Structure formats: structure tokens, C-alpha cells
Amino acid sequence: MIRVSIFDDNNSLRETLAMIFDATDDLISTGLYANALDVVQAVQRDSPDVILMDIDMPGRTGIEAVQLLREQRTASGLALPKILMLTVFEDVERIFAAISAGAVGYLLKKTPADKIIDAIREVMNGGAAMTPSIALKVLEAFRPQPKSPPVTYQLTDKENEVLYRLVEGDSYKLIAFHCGISMGTVRTHIVNIYEKLHVNSKSEAVAKALKTGLFRN
Predict the structure, then answer these.
(1) I need a surface site. Which of 10, 73, 79, 109 has the fewest CB within 10 A?
(2) What is the mean pLDDT of residues 50-56?
(3) pLDDT of residue 40
(4) CA distance 35 to 111
(5) Alpha helix stretches (DSSP H) within 125-214
(6) CA-based Rg of the chain, rounded to a whole angstrom?
(7) Measuring CA to CA, which residue among 167, 93, 83, 168 is closest to residue 130?
(8) Architecture field, domain 2-142
(9) Given a cut of 90, is residue 153 above it in pLDDT?
(10) Which residues contact residue 151 at a Cβ distance below 8 angstroms, ignoring those fewer than 6 apart?
(11) DSSP designation for 8
């Protein structure tokens, strides 16, 4: 039986999906939440195998929730549940931010319920599930582009190093260790990185680094 938790502020969608899952032989809904403010405690309590995560929720975005869960589970030596984003957003920035945070799939809310169930089974079998139009955007983002001068954003060598560690998913503590600097210096570098990349969060910085190929060989 696949245990599924749903984080979505759309009450009707949340309840409808739960009813459909509970009527499916190999699925059961384990937790329904209108926001992700207590996501860590909810996941500890419910022990879901798969999480359906909306992006735009009050108090904490779904992408922030995924990043928080990933950091907490890694620090505790626990496996991260399979996380499927279920959202209306189709922009590349949010897609990459979600994947970078730890999501293994990205579905649009217009996806039929039977396809959502297929996606849940797919990620449980080790796959990655995406709405076809989203998968196409991801492929297009990785297609070779006409050669142009490399994007640098005038980052210093140390800022590049810190940003690379962010892309790798390191916590601030690990970044400080790898870079041989203090936590305070890490935070200073990250503030400067956000300003130069014109972003406001870690997930946005990682998404921009991936999209622009800052660390592509």
C-alpha cells in the first residue's frame, strides 16, 4: 500500500484526490494539509511514501517546504519521501527550483486523476514523473544553445564556490566546512549572490545557476 500525503490549499482538490486514492487498491491517503507550515512534523507523524505538494500556499511555498524537508531528513539520516509537485505554474524557474529542492516529479493540476495515480506509482518504482509539456520544457532547457560569452554575473571566485555548493544541495554548515569560512561569511556571500543574480531565495539562485549553465562543463 502506497501512503500519500497531500499539501494543497485547494480544499476541494485535496479532498477529492484523497477520496480517489482511498478507493484505489494500492493507495491510501495519510494526511491532508492546507499549508506546509508544519511539514516536518506532519511527515514525521504520517510517514508517507509519496507527497503531493502544491507550490503557492500561505505561509510557506511548496518549494521551500521541499527544501526544508530535504535538509531535515538528510541531517537525521532519513530517506526523503518521493515528492511530486502538483501546481498550476509552468515556468522554467519554478520547475528547476522544485527539482533542485528535491522533487522527483512535476505535474500540472489539470492532470487527470488516473494520470496522477500513474505518476505516484512511477516515482515509487524509481522513475520521475512529469506532465508532458513540463518534460518538454526541461528538455529544451538542456538543449545546446548557440555559443555566447559565458554568464558570470560578476561573481567572485569565492561566491562561485559558495553558489556551486548550494547547487550541490549543501547546508550553510557544510558550505562553511568545504569553503573554509565561517557561517557568517557564508551568509554574507549568499546575500551578495542573491543581489547579483537578482533572486530572493536559495531555490531561485539554484534554478538560475542551472538554467544559465553557470557550472556546465
Answers:
(1) 79
(2) 97
(3) 95
(4) 21
(5) 132-142, 157-167, 172-179, 183-197, 202-211
(6) 18
(7) 83
(8) 3-Layer(aba) Sandwich (3.40)
(9) no
(10) 212, 213, 214
(11) -
Domain ranges in the chain with CATH number 3.40.50.2300: 2-142
Please give the full DSSP string across 33-55, using - where no structure is assigned: ES--TTHHHHHHHH--SEEEE-S
Q: What is the pLDDT of residue 216?
A: 60
Q: Which three cell numbers stand for residue 92?
A: 522554467
Q: Which fold has domain 157-211?
A: Arc Repressor Mutant, subunit A (1.10.10)
**In the numeric block, which cell numbers belong to residue 17?**
484526490
CB 3 within 8 A of CB 49: yes
Residue 44: is its pLDDT beyond 90? yes
Task: Give the pLDDT confidence score for residue 27 in this predicted structure.
Answer: 98
In sequence order, the 6+-apart residues with CB closer than 8 A to the CB of 211 are 92, 93, 96, 141
- Which 3 state secondary structure label does DSSP give 206? helix
Question: What HEC string does 85-125 produce?
Answer: EEECCCCHHHHHHHHHHCCCEEEECCCCHHHHHHHHHHHHC
Contact of 134 with 94, CB cutoff 8 Å: no
C-alpha angle 119-107-100 in degrees, rounded to nearest 5? 100
